[in-house]
Amino acid sequence: MNKKKMIRLTALVGVATATGVVAEANQAHAATTTTTETTNQTTNASVESTQAAVDAAQSTFDTAQTSVDSAQANVTSASNNVTSASAALSSAIANKEAATSENIASATSAVSSQAVVVASASQAVSEQAGVVSAAASVQASAQAEATSASASLSSSSANVASATSALSAAEAALTSDQSTAANNLSAAESAASSASAAVSSDQAAVDNAQAAVASAQAIVDAVAEVQSSDVINMSVAYITALKNYLANPSSANAAALQEVAKGADYVKELQQKFKSDASLDVVVDPSDPTVQEALSVYAVNLINHLRNQYGLTTAFGASANANVAAIDFVKKYYDDEDWNIFGTTGSDGKGHNKNGLDAYADQLNTSIAEDAGSGLTTWVNGKATMATTTLHNLLYAVYSDIATMLFDDGGTNNWSHAQSIFEDGTILGTDGFNNVYLGVAFDKYGYAHYELYNATEGNHLGNNAYSLDVQTAAQALLTNAQASLASAKASLQRMTTNLMVAKAAVVAAQNQLAALENSSANDLVAVTKARTQLVSAETSYQTALATYKQKEEALKKAGDNLAAAQASLEAAQATLATAKAKLAELEETVANLTNADQLLAAAQAAYEQAVANLTTATENLGAAQVDLAKAESQLALAEDTAEQAKVRAAIAAQVDQQLNGSTANDRQSAGQDATSLKTNGRALTATVATASAAKQKQGANQGRLPQTGNDDQEASTMALVGLGMLGMATGLYGYKKKKLTK
User: How far apart are CA 140 and CA 177, in angstroms?
Assistant: First the structure.
């Protein structure tokens, strides 16, 4: 507890102290038997006495403060109790109002219903406990079986280790030559196996190369002849009508062109002119680079022959890069997007994928035009499939499509296919086709796509260009195929020779091993026996391992079942606990409603008692605060008295020094100093300084005794000092005391 002292003028002396000190000094001077030692003892005793009073008053104050704190805590507690009692009384009143016979009956009925729920939940807990017990029994049994299986597995593993060790020992017993021979035999057999595999591989390569040669030979034998004979010749009338239409696509020019072209009948006539050669009836992959080259060169030559008849000098080109781009485009924007350009009937298709064309043109940074034909759907013998199509089918599809574009392209297309073939530098009104390369691809529906690219140095579509001399290109294919076949045959011959050598090495190693086995039969028998035992041990181990895994799985399943049963039991127990809590709540409600009068009376009595306790605590707090105020006042008074006693002792010591060691003049000077203190209102420190000066004079006049004739003068001087002190004391006690603050 922090306290502040009362504000007072500690630097000034009180009237009682000053007067007493002066009086004692005069008495000491008048009666020479009284010494300064006696005076100091008296003032010191006064200081000790007043300090003891301060300590006692402080103790009383602390006790009173503790009593106030305790009383304040009691008031707070009593106030909280009143609040709680008030809430309980309100609840009891509400309960009394709700305690009607209907509510009691309803609550009682709810208790009965909830009791049924509790009974059912308890039954469920009992049943689930049985399930848990059964699952625990199964789990314990599974654990025992798993433990047994684990022990069996460990035993089998030990047997395998023992058999392995025995085999190692038996094999070590063989001579180094025996081991070397066995290793040689193993190496020879491995080499023979590798050589045999290489022969098989090379034989397959030879077979493939022979098939490639046959395919290339068919192309060489037939493509050139087909290319030279399968040309489409246009009449002068058709060329004139087409030029007139392209220059002015009026309805009259369109009708004239249609009349000259003769329509579908003439297309069929052209299709029947396609040369059918048995050498072309070889199954091929339309995306094979060799086939791609043949198709694109075939198509470009047909188109360039038409352009020459039309009077154009710029020719279309064919390249591997253009073919790759065509295949990539068709796969991405037709096959992957399930885009059927013609549909199943020819009239229900989606048409060209224009968004795909735009996107691919942006990707390649070039201009693209697309012609599409019925492709593999136009055969006289029915639709061909991509898996079984032949070179004949593909060439016929290209020939038929280009013929149809020329002579049967009226109606809604407005001869746009023919326009794409015969325009120069532009296609369908779009510029940027100054270096056209053609790529051919078939979609997964069997339809043919003819992609016309404008090749530039930037897009590289003209790179890896094909020779349009069909015979030269076909012969190059055949030459390459024959070279591959020759290389494959040479490799097969080498591998066959290697195989023969390897087989001879195997025979030699077997003979060496047989010779050594005859000389070390006992060691070989031991090795054979050890190997047999190892095989048996490994078989037993595998059986034990399978059993162990089975038992472990059964144990895991049993554990899972037990965990599930325990979880269900915990859920049932939780349901039971909830039902019991609900039942207890309902029973408490019935009890509260049934005993509403008693509960209300008890709550009323508790509330009144709490109010009475608060009143008593408040009164006790007031009494404790009064006692604290009294103790505070007494402490302040005791501290003032102690301060005055300390000042008195200090003055007494100073006056004794002046009286015991000065002359009459010194004492007169001391009296004048005291009078000056009264007159000027100076502090005690000034007085002490003057006393110090008097002490110095005492040293100069040491040995002089005070004269009797000076007694009256010195007494008068001290009286003046007393009067001055009285005036200052009046000013001191004129200040109003302040209470101590905590």
Answer: 57
Distance (Å) of CA 674 to CA 9, 489, 567, 681: 18, 147, 102, 10
CA distances from 276 to 219, 227, 234, 374 (A): 13, 12, 22, 19
Pairing of strands 368-373, 448-454: antiparallel
Q: What is the DSSP string of 662-723?
A: --HHHHHHHHHHHHHHHHHT--HHHHHHHHHHHHHHHHHTTTPPPPGGGHHHHHHHHHHHHH
Q: Write the pLDDT tens digit of every residue in 578-618.
A: 999 999 999 999 999 999 999 999 999 999 999 999 999 99
Banded pLDDT at 64 (limits 50, 70, 90): very high
Q: Which residues are CB-contacts of 161 (< 8 A; sequence separation ≥ 6)?
A: none
For residue 470, which of 586, 301, 346 has the smallest C-alpha distance? 301
Q: CB of 60 within 8 A of CB of 634? A: yes
Helix, strand, coil percentages, rounded to 5, for the chain: 75, 5, 20
Residue type, 670: A
How does pLDDT run across 423-445, given as a tens digit for each residue? 899 988 888 899 999 999 999 98
Task: Tokens 């070179």: give the residue.
Answer: 391
Element (H, E) at 12: none
Share of the chain above pLDDT 90, in %: 44
Please list the residues that pair with 37 across neighbouring strands.
none
Mean per-residue pLDDT of the chain: 79
Residue of 648, 656, 736 lying closest to 684 (CA atoms): 648
The secondary structure of residue 276, as a DSSP letter, is: P
For residue 266, what pLDDT band results from cuts at 50, 70 and 90? low
The two tokens of residue 389 are 């199509």
Q: Is 473 exposed, middle or buried (0-12, 13-18, 19+ CB in 10 A)?
A: buried
Q: At 742, is the pLDDT very low, low, confident or very high (cuts 50, 70, 90)?
A: very low
Question: How remote is the C-alpha of 116 from its chain's centroid?
Answer: 49
For residues 10 and 732, give the distance between their C-alpha atoms in angstroms, rounded to a whole number.
9
Tens digit of pLDDT for each residue in 623-672? 999 999 999 999 999 999 999 999 989 898 888 787 776 555 555 554 55
Measured in whole angstroms, how far is the alpha carbon of residue 108 from the centre of its chain?
55
Query: How does DSSP classify residue 408?
Result: S
Sign of the dihedral defined by the CA atoms of residues 310, 312, 313, 319, in that order: negative
How many beta carbons lie within 10 A of that of residue 741, not counting itself?
Answer: 8
CA-CA-CA-CA torsion sign (652, 655, 657, 661): negative
What is the rounded distance in angstroms from the CA atom of residue 184 to the CA atom of residue 189?
Answer: 8
